[in-house]
Amino acid sequence: MQAAPSPGAIRALKVVLFMLCLLPLGRLALETFGMAGLSLGANPVEELLHRLGKWGLNFLLITLAVTPLCRLSRWNWLIRFRRMLGLFAFFYVSMHFLVYAGLDQRFGVTAILEDIAERPYITLGVTALVLLLPLALTSTNAMMRRLGRRWRQLHRLVYPITILAVWHFYWQVKLDTLEPTIYAAILAALLGFRLVDWRRRRGQNKAAGPRSSHDRIAHPRRAL
């Protein structure tokens, strides 16, 4: 296992990652206002809605990919970037919904509620956003300490949230389902890795047998 970068290097990498995560938004802003020779095309609202939603899904999958990458590379320090990636997923998904509610529906509450009730893919998308909200609100270190074990249980919602997001994407497209199918395959691979890794660790724990009380005191479980 390679040594982790210094705290200063981690902070610098977080700044770089933060700026990279804002690049999609910056490009969309340029296209929205027709700057640098860019544009959103003939249907700007639909394009903006689609691109923000896809970036939200991208960040959800990238967030889920952090743990497998840590396991495979043994670079456990990568886990320090997972929170930022998850918050950017929430940010882009929220922007996706706000464009739908504001630009597409003009904040018409009745029309939005009818859409949620009558169009299944919108029902799935709004459900994913609602489930994502408590994860964003409890992402701080203070909330981790306050919730304890319940924090980990709550944040396992990211799995059904991402499934709902991919399902939402699949149902939203009209004809060409290749792209959402690729997203579904990536999600299946990430979840499959976690299942295999969980079974492997469970087998190792059974083989090791129950630890004595002395071992549990000497080697307490580390916090998340």
Task: Describe the 3D structure.
By secondary structure, the protein is an all-alpha fold. α6 (141-147) crosses α7 (149-155). The protein has helices spanning 7-32, 44-73, 82-104, 109-118, 120-137, 141-147, 149-155, 158-172, 178-208, 213-218. The chain is built from ten helices and no strands. Residues 212-224 have low confidence and may be disordered.
Observed structural traits:
224 residues, mainly alpha, 10 helices, 0% strand, disordered C terminus
What is the tally of helical segments? 10
Largest sheet: none
* Overall domain count: 1
Overall 3D geometry?
globular
| Oligomeric form | single chain
Low-confidence stretches: 212-224
Which class best fits the helix and strand makeup?
mainly alpha
Mean pLDDT equals 90
List the helices and strands in order. HHHHHHHHHH
Total number of beta strands: 0
Radius of gyration (CA) equals 20 Å
β content, as a range? under 5%
In whole angstroms, the N-to-C terminal distance is 19 Å
Helix content: over 70%
Can you lay out the helices and strands and say which pair or pack?
Blueprint: H1 7-32, H2 44-73, H3 82-104, H4 109-118, H5 120-137, H6 141-147, H7 149-155, H8 158-172, H9 178-208, H10 213-218
Helix pairs in contact: 1-2, 1-3, 2-3, 2-8, 2-9, 3-5, 4-5, 5-8, 6-7, 8-9
